[in-house]
Request: fold
Amino acid sequence: MKVLPGKNGLGLDPILKKLFKKSKQNEEPLEDPWLEKISNLPTCTEVSFDGNTILVECRLDECCYASISRHPDAMYWVMEPELTTEEQEIIRQLKNRMLRTVLASNNGNLEQEILELMEKLAIDVSISSKNRIIYYLLRDFTGYGPIDPLARDVNIEDISCNGVGLPIYVQHRYLGSIKTNLGFEEEGALDHFVAKLAMRCGKSVSVAKPILDAGMPDGNRVNITYGREVTQKGSAFTIRKFKPSAMSPVELVQHGTISPDMLAYLWTLIEYKSSIMVFGETGSGKTTLLNAFSLFIPPEKKIVSIEDTPEIRLPHENWTQLLTRTSFSGEQGEITMFDLLKASLRQRPDYMILGEIRGEEANTLFQAISTGHLALSTIHASSAADVIDRLTSPPMSIPLPLISNIGCLCHQITVHGKDGSLQRRTKSITEIVKNGDGIELKTVYKWDPQTGFEYYENSRLERARNVGLGWESNQLTCIARRTGEDKREIEEQLKQKAVMLGEMSKNNVYDVAEMISNYYCNQDNL
Reply:
């Protein structure tokens, strides 16, 4: 395109030159109708998704909103301001300028840089037009581009694109899997988009290496398959979103995911250094629960976490966060969970957190547990018996006697509520009890769809109210034997913890870290 000389030595194409001659007298009123409409909508955290809701509209940003229909066919509509031909051309020109000047300056305030560049180019447009231009520039340069509105919805957990010409799907926290009105119609645009996603992770994808699993700078996790090398429909990607801050145990209680009694039991096991493993299917909330009860770790204790992608979030200062690394070429430079686990044992950790165990690192982990280290981890399985089968089978091949060193197994599931909403529940907490040369699985807590959370031995609940818990927990017995404390005192502490968590839930007190610190400092005065 031929460029004409312009103000301050910058070039202006004919379309822009025509636009710049507009008079401000023709400018729209200061109020932007589009922004005014969006400002009256509730945010995505304020809307309700009960059974009677057919259409929900919520604000995602100052310039975009979502319109979500549930019946008869669920659909997630992203509503963004429409651009005129002239505005599209201005954005194209500004993007070219920004790549050469604004982004190179690394000022940190991109919106201000855009405004200064527009002033320098003498771009004289209406307030509404300026808002639209800035929105799209910020969306494409600092956000996720065309799918940025989806990334802004805190109720969306996963964003999936299965190929060219196909609609993008999202996994909604309350509505499950929903189709959206977004998609990539051109193969080149989709390839370019996934390449940019990889660059934001500090990595690359190509025909030679078409598969990538990495963490984004904002904490989200992305899986990419590039081109048609391994996918028939073109490039595909899935973005798993994670909240900036971990969900606290109090929030889990409020959402009905777990009961205060269950959390108090897990808190007691962590306090007395008994290992816990969370299992369930994909998307059942395993890491969320793991992160939540990890907050019960005493603040002064040494923690080492090992993950493929950074999902664990803790407020503890005495915490070392280790991440695996893929190889540069072949197997050279690869750092596995097994390598990190061996290295972590030399750091004398009080608590070890493994994002997920799946391979040879399991042997080293169980050897460490048998020597007195506490481990908190997750594993994919559909039942407690399946967990044992996976642990004792290749590639883990853990000897059965070592498995009894795990204190308990927490089973996470996903269910649909009566209103059709998606809900997560801790279905059961099961202790692993050594029985001769074998093991026995003993459920101590369970969740029932009809009756809710309860002790497993329901007939003994009356005794539970009067004296202790009313059921024989092997773990509490082992803790009492190991520490020399009276089991009744440990049970009484457990009940106090349950009351504390219940009161925090009722009063919307979410700062669990401060509560934990106060608890360990003033335990005798409770």
